[in-house]
Amino acid sequence: MQVRNDGGESEANPGAIIMWFRNDLRLTDNPALRHAEGSGRPVICLYILDETPGVRPMGAASLWWLDKSLKSLAQSLEKLGNRLVLRKGAAAEVLDAVVAETGATSVLWNRLYDKARTDRDAEIKAGLKQAGVDCQSFNAGLLNEPWTVRNGSGQPYKVFTPYWRAARGQLDETTVELAPRSLRSLDKNVRSERLADWGLHPARPDWSKGFDIWSPGEAGALKRLDGFLSGPITGYGEARDVPGVEATSRLSPHLHFGEIGPRQVWLAVRDAAEAGDIPSTEADKFLSEIGWREFNHAILFHWPQLPTRNFKPEFDGFPWTTDPAAFEAWTRGETGYPIVDAGMRELWTTGFMHNRVRMIVASFLIKHLMIDWREGEAWFWDTLVDADLASNVGNWQWTAGSGADASPYFRIFNPIAQGEKFDPRGVYVRRWIPELKSASDELIHKPWLRPLDLPAAAKRIYAKPIVDHAKARERALEAYHSL
Ligand code: FAD
Questions:
Q1: Is residue 434 reached through a cis peptide bond, with omega within 30 degrees of 0 on the bond before it?
Q2: Mutation to probe ligand 1, out of 58, 380, 395, 398 (largest number of atoms < 8 A from CB)
Q3: Which residues 6+ apart lie within 8 Å of 205 measured at CB?
């Protein structure tokens, strides 16, 4: 696959170019930016904190990340002799204003794929074209754009395995665009808002202390990839399910904000495997996870109503319960099931949760508490630094059984057995639930069975299970069979 480049620049058009940054906050492998550089024309680098109605606003954890990522991008652009212009407002209005202020004659961007933003972009494109402003878009965010992977009858795939087989087959020629060496700026100063005035970093209270494990920005993303390839990838296939060890790449927020592109990840992994630096089985497993990211984007593109509607309409009649107290216990990590509570506390503290634990906590909310997956999805949206519409909605629907290629509803995770299997020594649980630090390995996932073994403080502080596993399981299955 070659980097798609949608057209040539007109020699007769000498105006400035607006490079509209969105989820592509990087210099390397950024085709729109590269195209702007190649034109030799002045480039206005613009980021819009978009307020278009219908486009889902970012959650608090994402805004924390965005703040740092924009700072990093602004610094990188300054090194190229350019600067980042910040504006807040509905994207169409902001672009019209910047065009009017600068006389820019082209707008370039890298594509996004959810309906609210494809609709927005199409409208912007039509409006700008009418005003005589040229628009071009590129692919920076996916290995294969959703419409390019289809089955023998020309339909989009609904099942991951054949999807990925077809998608992989199209990737042999992948290349990466180099970062620009310099970027001509406009002679006149373009008004920019101040990042600090956007208030993206939380204040009063600042709940983000535990987020200091992250280094948002392109340099941080490359460092993560390097660190992963020089160590954890070797045992990825098995260890990726063990939350007590850091065995996965933690690239998800970097990929979401586009601080690194999937082509860069793909090529780095493929080259390392071909050079014999990493086992090819582990490389394949890791790349198939990148494949799930692609699959979720394709599914959301073809079934745009998924953030609110079940992929499988038979779930529309599911008898969800309304239980604010249980929901709150879940969000606070106070359900009494240690692996669930550890996950929810990791999420609140760091903006991240291990994938295996995401599946366990999501299953618990949907099946043990019978709370609508949309409520869980919204909580994750607000608290995850990697909150991504396609992956979040896709995985919540996968867990609920209502999604494409989903886990069947009747497969109900037992939170005790899951804890014992994937965190047998309680390393993860002890890290996030200090009350259980001195519980025995045998009881760490069911501390209520012999509370006398717990120190007095833990008995007081750590919750009893808010539902009984066996009864909750039965209730969920009954509800499912009633459909
Ligand atoms: P690695 O194991 O190192 O995987 C590499 C990359 O592959 C990830 O960075 C990610 O981009 C992609 N990936 C891995 N697993 C999945 C998956 N199941 N679906 C889609 N992409 C995947 N991921 C998000 O990026 N954003 C979300 O909002 C999100 N919400 C989720 C909600 C639920 C209920 C569940 C069960 C999973 C969710 N995931 C989401 C998927 C997955 O948990 C994270 O991508 C993964 O934990 C990120 O950690 P990592 O980068 O170390 O992953």
A1: no
A2: 395
A3: none
pLDDT, tens only, 127-173: 999 999 999 999 999 999 999 999 999 999 999 999 999 999 998 77
- The pTM of the full predicted model, rounded to 2 decimals, is 0.95
For 141, the token pair is 């965010």
Q: In a mutational test of the pocket of ligand 1, which residue from 242, 286, 380, 386 has the highest number of ligand atoms less than 8 Å from its CB?
A: 386
> Is the CB–ligand 1 distance for residue 350 below 6 Å?
no
Q: Are 478 and 350 spatial neighbours (Cβ–Cβ below 8 Å)?
A: no
Assign domain 313-481 one CATH number from 1.10.579.10, 3.30.1370.20, 3.30.450.40, 3.90.1720.10.
1.10.579.10
Q: What angle do CA 404, 407, 408 make, to 5 degrees?
A: 105
The answer to whether the CB of 208 falls within 8 A of the CB of 214 is no
Task: Give me ligand 1 centre to Cα 183, in Å.
Answer: 34
Helices then strands, counting H and E runs in the chain, come out as 19, 5
> What is the distance of C-alpha 118 from the center of its chain?
18
Which atom of ligand 1 lies closest to the CA of 262? 11
Q: What is the largest CA-CA distance in the chain?
A: 82
- Could you list the active site residues? 289, 292, 320, 355, 373, 396
